[in-house]
Amino acid sequence: MPPPIDLRSDTVTRPTAAMRKAMADAIVGDDVLGDDPTVIELQNRFAQLTGKEAACFVPSGTMANETAIRAQTEPGDEIICEINGHIVDHETGGPAALAGCMVRTLPSQHGILTEAQIRASVRPRDDDHAAWSKLLVLENTHNAGGGTVWPLDQFARVARTAHELGMRVHLDGARLWNACIASGHKASDYCRHVDSVSACFSKGLGAPVGSAVAGDRETIRRVFRFRKMFGGAMRQAGILAAAAIHALDHHLERLAEDHANAKRIAESLATIPGYRIDPNRVQTNLVYFDIDDRLSPTRDFAAKMKSRGVWILDVGPTTMRAVTHLDVTR
Ligand SMILES: *Cc1c(COP(=O)(O)O)cnc(C)c1O
Asked: Does the global pTM surpass 0.90?
């Protein structure tokens, strides 16, 4: 049997030979002591790409979000987030466990919130009975929303509204790179509207490990502190940072291929009876589609697909997800 076509996630990519060489050749130090030159280079690069003062390299996107949340909130504060946000559904209750925050979730069209929703949900600061609505968390691309790209003007308006109401704004940009390639905007175009941003090198960019958080110097100083507290400070981490630098140099522009392949899958599925998908909604590399009852349950459907050499995830009672990435060709 040929090797499987693994469409479960864009995290399944294996480092290329060139990336492994960059890792092997990396100059390293002790990053906990602050002198790993390759980590410093990556952090500077990420800060520059996002237009922020400083950045911190962390092991995972989850730790990037959770350190950013912890750095910008106090226990008892409220976080506002879209109802199927990654921090709500996939971070094991981290905002509650690690930052002591409540999360107020808002419904949306494909992950995109409105100014009116923000205005209607922020609690008044002068009410001594209310939690403080301290942090708005936005996601771009929005994963559960279908890999949706935020229109830049709406993103700016929503962030500005939160700021006017006294909140800070964090961007979960695990797939910010995909949003940029799909929209033509620079990372800094989005990031200038937020206080902190996280992004993954371990997804579409193809690095084996790693994410980063960027923001103002004071916030990132706190992120470093909580990275240590959460157990994420690493020693000769330059080996990992080298993979991320290689990914930024070589794997950014090619995300357009993943998007074209995802569109191609969506358009093909739309022609097959039994599958429900609107190809116009596939903007990046995530392809969510629904299957008819007669093809379900989705778990069995995924198992049958796997036996034919195509790995995809069952993500709901009728919903499947296929993701394109560096390791799948057209
Ligand atoms: C994948 C993902 C993360 C973080 O994932 P890790 O597996 O912890 O690296 C965060 N936010 C979104 C939207 C994601 O898709």
From this structure: yes
